[in-house]
Amino acid sequence: MCDEALVTTVQPSKIRNPPSSPPTRSESTELVDSLLDYTYSLVDPSALNIIAFSGGVDSSLAAALVYQTIHGTDDHDRRGNVLAVLGVSPSLPENQLILARSIAYNIGIDLKEVPTTEGFDVTYVENQGQACFVCKSHLYSALEAVTTTVSSIASSHEHQNNVIMYNGTNADDTKDPTRLGLVAAKAFSVQSPLIHTTKDDIRRAAKHMN
User: Fold this and answer.
1) β-bridge pairing 163-166 and 48-53
2) C-alpha Rg value of the chain to the nearest Å
3) pLDDT band, very low/low/confident/very high, at 3 (cuts 50, 70, 90)
4) How far is 204 from 96, CA to CA, in rounded Å?
5) Is CATH 3.40.50.410 what the domain over 25-208 is classified as, yes or no?
6) pLDDT digits (tens, 9 = 90+) for 9-62
């Protein structure tokens, strides 16, 4: 599933760029704490919090942050429902599916696997240079499937009508404003805990969170 997102207006705590020398544990702790603080500003304990999950480092870190923010607190009023949703189709390699399941299990987050239909798109299957259209077809297929699933899950939770979707879009992803995923994510009001974080810092935070 494509990890793209809406650029939010909430500004996080300042996250320092990685130094030239290997970061110390205290610096990594500070980075993760700042990410958790920002994620705290995004989650809604009364909502169904859904992460568009692929098992890649970006969406995995986003899932870990949302899950820990909701479930890693002693404030029981702050604990809500959180779920990772993975788009599954013949284009998803078996080893990647197994890896995604393993990562979700290690995080502790529930994983919902949703069939996607990009494999029925002739242009996607032919893949004759129409990369932009193919990417869009794949993205919207996955988001449509996730949205349908989210709606059905939300309706099964009494007194819970609000749904917040998250993904792993990071600061480096936003350098190209023409990315179709950014436009699509905006339409779905997707949030990202990593929107102000570089890829290098994401890898560092993910490693620190094991």
Assistant:
1) parallel
2) 17
3) very low
4) 22
5) no
6) 334 444 445 445 566 778 889 999 999 999 999 998 778 888 989 899 999 999
Asked whether the beta carbons of 72 and 21 are under 8 A apart, the reply is no
Nearest to 170 by CA among 38, 20, 24: 38
pTM tops 0.85, yes or no:
no
- pLDDT band, residue 87 (cuts 50/70/90): confident
Q: Per the structure block, which two tokens stand in for 127?
A: 């893949």
What pLDDT sits at residue 10?
37
d(CA 210, CA 203): 10
Quick one: which of 18, 7, 104 has its CA closest to 53? Answer: 104
Alpha helices in the chain (DSSP H): 25-42, 57-71, 94-107, 122-126, 131-155, 180-187, 199-208
Query: Can you tell me which residue has the tokens 């603080």?
Result: 37
Q: How far apart are CA 144 and CA 20, in angstroms?
A: 42
Domain map (residue ranges) of the chain: 25-208
By C-alpha distance, which of 100, 108, 75, 85 is closest to 164? 85
Q: What is the tens place of the pLDDT at every residue in 122-137?
A: 655 666 655 556 555 6
The residues facing 82 across adjacent strands are 49
Return d(Cα 97, Cα 54) in angstroms, integer. 8
